[in-house]
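User: Hi! I'm a student and our assignment asks us to look at how structure tokens line up with a sequence. Could you show me two examples?

Assistant: Happy to help. In each example below, the sequence comes first and the structure tokens follow. Example one:
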Amino acid sequence: MPQPDARAELAPTIARHLNVTLAASIAEASALEGSRAMVTGPRSGFANAGEAIKAALALHRAVAAIGGPARFAARIGAELTEILAWTFCPAQHVETVAAASGVSRHDLRPDLYPRGAATRDLTPEEAVAAYLRAGSYFARTGRCLSAAEGH
């Protein structure tokens, strides 16, 4: 373990490295933002690179929620090698993946399932009823909201 003064000497070097790495990542993301085809591929309709990245992260959340790639593949009826090749969820699997994992269709493919613009706040009675339904569902199924909290 480095001495306290050695850590103080290393801090600027580490900070410089992190800043350079972060700056390079931002520059790369900015360059890719203008070139949608490079990030999203020829068949997707993502509005920008950020949307494609969010869709890819949603797929990772779905896989983790089900218990890993092998369980995920078995659960949705696909081959493991096919799943591992996905960057984001293919259109024909969105419904199945959303139902199996609990990740919303919009999160998986925002280009195909945009969020509805017409939303309203719940009344206090509706909020309590929704809370009780969710609690009942989670108690019945043994699931929880976060994969990290799963038991």
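Example two works the same way, sequence first and then tokens:
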Amino acid sequence: MINVPGILQTEEYIRAIHHSYRPALPAENIDARVEFRLRRRNVLERDVPLPFKVIVHEAALRRYKGTFFESSSFPLGICAESAALSAAVTDGIRDFTAIAVVGGDPKSDGQGEPVTPCGGCRQRIFDVMGGFERNVPVFCADLALSHVQRFTIRDLLPFAFSASDLPTM
């Protein structure tokens, strides 16, 4: 699914995105989220709108998304970061310019502390990036994107385990 930048999303598009969430969101929650996103568009509908340009970078068309999958057997769950990295690596992509992690309670207004990758996903990011040589930024945010923090993999995993830690045979 290709994402339209938030400020350009129509009500129908926003509703379609939120109706696709699993588990399904309550209707009143979807209505609140639609209203929140549409309020952001007010800058376009002023009597004297703010001048701006929208440039959709080619990378946006190649964005890999993942979703978490919970299992009643906890070790069998799959993190969204792991799913997105796996999809990219399957397509032969390992050269990322940045990684974004967004999460939180879908039953809330979406505002809260930024969600960071779990320890296993931090290690996966480190491995896919080829270690600390490419210290790619990892942007972490809450669902409403009201709190965004920039980290590097070195910040998130300062004592990473790497192939150099393995014994030689």
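Here is something you could point out in your write-up. The chain has two domains: 1-56, 64-158.
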